[in-house]
Specification:
With 736 residues, the protein is α/β, with parallel strands linked by helices. It has four domains: 25-101, Peptidase S8 propeptide/proteinase inhibitor I9 (Alpha-Beta Plaits), CATH 3.30.70.80; 106-328 and 473-588, Peptidase S8/S53 domain (Rossmann fold, 3-Layer(aba) Sandwich), CATH 3.40.50; 329-466, Glucose Oxidase, domain 1; 593-597 and 639-733, Sandwich (Immunoglobulin-like), CATH 2.60.40.2310. The strands form eight sheets. Strands 16, 17, 18, 19, 20, 21, 22 and 23 form an eight-stranded mixed β-sheet that branches. It has a seven-stranded parallel β-sheet with strand order 7-10-6-12-14-15-24, sandwiched between helices. A five-stranded mixed β-sheet has the order 28-35-34-30-32, with no helix packed on it. Strand 2 (67-71) and strand 3 (77-82) form a beta hairpin. Keywords: Hydrolase, Protease, Secreted, Serine protease, Signal. One of its GO terms (molecular function) is serine-type endopeptidase activity.
């Protein structure tokens, strides 16, 4: 009996040890967000507070290295490894706003600035040299001519930043990097240096110098330049080859950038999948909220998860979400068969086969069986999926639209033809001669191939075509609204050039993402909302150089109300694709009227979204509280320069309240002009606003009524005084 008891006791101890080991190993990285700094507490004391909290949750499991990072400069929080159960207990502690996993994010111009009216000769102010744009990205390649400091004076006196393991200059005045767990790939540079190209591209689009005769191996040739070439750049590297762009690192970058004293924050990263996350459970929401509190506007890419509706994951109202539009620049790649037939495809093909013909083969017929592949996989031409002996020296027909990284060099093939039904409005650059062709033409080429034993083809170097007839439109990959979290606010906010953009690059990173690609370039052509975002960041910096004391909401308003309306015919998703329209930076510098929003206004909005007094006091560390009458209707009074109304009934009536501030002519009278479909009735009361001074505010109401269950109905309100036209988009929609 004693032996049995000992055996049972031993088994129980083993189970407990195994369970404890499992719990430790099951820990994942979490971010604990605690709002603003506690009143009366020195920020240097915050790490001690974080250790105390960790000890309470982890108990005997606590070790000093359990806390991976403390946020203490601009807001309060820390990064720690926890189990799900420990994370839940941490979330229940006093003064904790949220606890959420350290989700991974991903990285999301000669012609583009001219396309939106920003010529090299536009009016600029001397204050542009004092504007500092913080770029949260993959770093920066400092040797690029785009970042030379020739002609620059010392940094602005307000600057508090520094450079870590990086030689800055008078142009690049700040450079920091964040990899909290020290998880690096062999190719990573443990410094702010960019080894992926992306950060150099976005930073030079914002504030790159004028660099003549720039091109990608002859394509898009011209003068590469940023929107505010005299501005300064502070780079915050959060993106790495091995781990992507984690949320913890991103939040650390916000913490530093805000404290360093940047004027605008630009971030072109996004979640790796479509996930709807509550406010203050992502680095983007938290960081941009605290930036807003310090007078800093955050411009953020709207994600590359389109074209489905509600594919946007950047939807907080204090952030500026940017969609990607075309600029009329296309790259067309011709394919000629041995029988003389010519087909037109799409790609950026820098290779010249000099009209040489190569045998054709279908990828599904040549699987790499030695490594376990069959035709169901090889037909898509993924890396190593085809037999290298059977594709060498041949042009391969591939099903689908595999990205350059998934294809590589296609096991040494001479070229590749991709065919699929996918929309191909943003071309890729591959490591071998490639053309993406329509499925119909793909089938014709395949029929030709199987009809002749010696079928051949060649792929020509791409032709550049600048056709504005169907431009601009929102590219298919750009994420769409409506706002999945708060349906009665419009997202995205704006559109900007994001397709076929030439900008600076890191010469150590291949343009096809294939390591064997030997083409090293200083400038590269890229597409993405990542490329659209820096255009708006630069436009915001341009506006701020004229109006240094404007709030983030005023700058955002100026950009939105002066945007060029886009065509719903070319964009069936209308405002859910392009927001207020395509940016017009020149007009934005002098908008006439602006819609301002304070932190207190956002607090009222959050009350309507269900936040309690206790949650708000933790978030703001002041006496913020919700009134007894705080309701869901608060969203209709948030002073946004756009109006969105979701309805799920056939008869509706809704009142929006707005206030505008006069920043145009001291004495002026604006009349309301409404353009709307006959299915809805929109009234503005009063319909005339008269001003007698700069800074004067006037309020009005917009009543939207209808007897219809709409799909998407677009309308607009324009306040017009004969000099300024201040336009707000209006969208009424049902279940889409």
């Amino acid at each position: 009996m004693i032996s049995l008891r000992l055996s049972l006791l031993f088994t129980l101890i083993c189970c407990l040890i195994i369970n404890q080991t499992y719990s430790k190993n099951d820990r994942k990285t979490y971010i604990v967000y605690m709002g603003d700094h506690p009143k009366g507490m020195d920020s240097a004391s915050l790490p001690s507070l974080h250790i105390t909290m960790a000890q309470k949750v982890l108990g005997s499991d606590f070790e000093p290295e359990a806390i991976l990072h403390s946020y203490k400069k601009s807001f309060n929080g820390f990064v720690i490894k926890l189990t799900e159960e420990e994370a839940q207990r941490m979330a229940e502690m006093d003064n904790v706003v949220s606890v959420f996993p350290n989700r991974k994010s991903r990285l999301q111009t000669t012609r583009s600035w001219d396309f939106i009216g920003v010529s090299q000769q536009i009016q600029r102010t001397s204050l542009e040299r004092d504007i500092i744009v913080g770029v949260i990205d993959s770093g920066l390649w400092p040797e690029s001519k785009s970042f030379s400091d020739e002609g620059f004076g010392p940094p602005p006196s307000k600057w508090k930043g520094s450079c870590h393991n990086f030689t800055c200059n008078k142009k690049i005045i700040g450079a920091k990097y964040f990899n909290i767990e020290g998880d690096y790939a062999k190719e990573d540079s443990i410094s702010p240096r960019d080894v992926q190209g992306h950060g150099s591209h976005t930073a030079s689009t914002i504030a790159g110098n004028l660099v003549k005769s720039s091109s990608l191996l002859g394509f898009a040739s011209g003068t590469a330049r940023g929107g505010v070439p005299s501005a300064r750049i502070a780079i915050y590297k959060v993106c790495w080859i091995k781990i992507g762009c984690p949320q913890a690192e991103t939040l650390a970058a916000f913490d530093e950038a805000i404290a360093d004293g940047v004027d605008i924050i630009s971030i072109s990263t996004g979640l790796t999948s479509i996930v709807y996350i509550p406010y203050f459970q992502s680095a983007f929401d938290i960081g941009s909220f605290h930036a807003m509190k310090r007078g800093i506007l955050t411009s953020k890419s709207a994600d590359n998860s389109g074209p489905g509706l509600s594919s946007i994951t950047t939807y907080s109202p204090w952030i500026l979400s940017v969609a990607a539009s075309t600029i009329g620049r296309k790259f067309l790649t011709k394919v000629q068969l041995g029988n003389g037939m010519v087909f037109e495809g799409v790609s950026i093909n820098t290779f010249d086969l000099k009209n040489k013909m190569f045998p054709l083969v279908y990828a599904g017929d040549v699987p790499n069986t030695a490594d376990g592949y069959n035709s169901s996989t090889s037909r898509f031409c993924y890396v190593n999926s085809v037999d290298k002996h059977l594709v060498k020296g041949k042009i391969v027909l591939c099903d689908g639209n595999a990205s350059p990284k998934k294809v590589g060099d296609l096991s040494g093939a001479a070229g590749m033809l991709l065919g699929a039904t996918d929309v191909k409005d943003a071309p890729f650059t591959y490591a071998l001669p490639t053309a993406f062709i329509s499925l119909r033409n793909f089938k014709l080429i395949h029929s030709y191939m199987v009809s002749l034993r010696n079928s051949t083809a060649t792929i020509f170097r791409s032709d550049e075509d600048n056709d504005d007839s169907q431009t601009p439109f929102i590219v298919s990959f750009s994420s769409r609204g409506p706002n999945p979290l708060t349906p009665n606010t419009l997202k995205p906010d704006l559109a900007a050039p994001g397709v076929n953009i030439l900008a600076a690059w890191s010469p150590v990173y291949t343009i096809s993402e294939f390591k064997g690609d030997k083409r090293a370039v200083q400038y590269n052509i890229e597409s993405g909302t990542s490329m659209a975002c820096p255009h708006v960041s630069a436009a915001a910096a341009y506006v701020k150089s004229f109006h240094p004391n404007w709030s983030p909401a005023m700058i955002k308003s100026a950009l939105m109300t002066t945007a060029t309306p886009m065509s719903p015919t070319l964009n069936p998703d209308a405002e859910f694709a392009y927001g207020a329209g395509l940016i017009n930076p020149l007009k934005a510098a002098n908008p006439g009227l602006v819609y301002d929003i304070s932190e207190a206004d956002y607090v009222k909005f959050l009350c309507g979204e269900g936040y309690t007094d206790e949650m708000l006091r933790v978030l703001t560390k002041d006496h913020s509280r919700c009134s007894k009458h705080a309701k869901k209707e608060a969203v209709y009074d948030l002073n946004l320069p756009s109006l969105a109304l979701y309805v799920n009934v056939s008869s509706f009536s809704r009142i929006f309240h707005r206030t505008v501030t006069n920043v145009g002519l001291a004495t002026s009278s604006y009349k309301a002009k409404v353009v709307s479909p006959s299915l809805i009735d929109i009234q503005v009361k009063p319909n005339v606003l008269s001003f007698t001074s700069i800074g004067q505010k006037k309020s009005f109401s917009v009543i939207i009524e209808g007897n219809v269950n709409p799909d998407i109905l677009s309308a607009s309100l324009v306040w017009d005084d004969g000099t300024f036209q201040v336009r707000s988009p209006i969208v009424v929609y049902g279940d889409t």
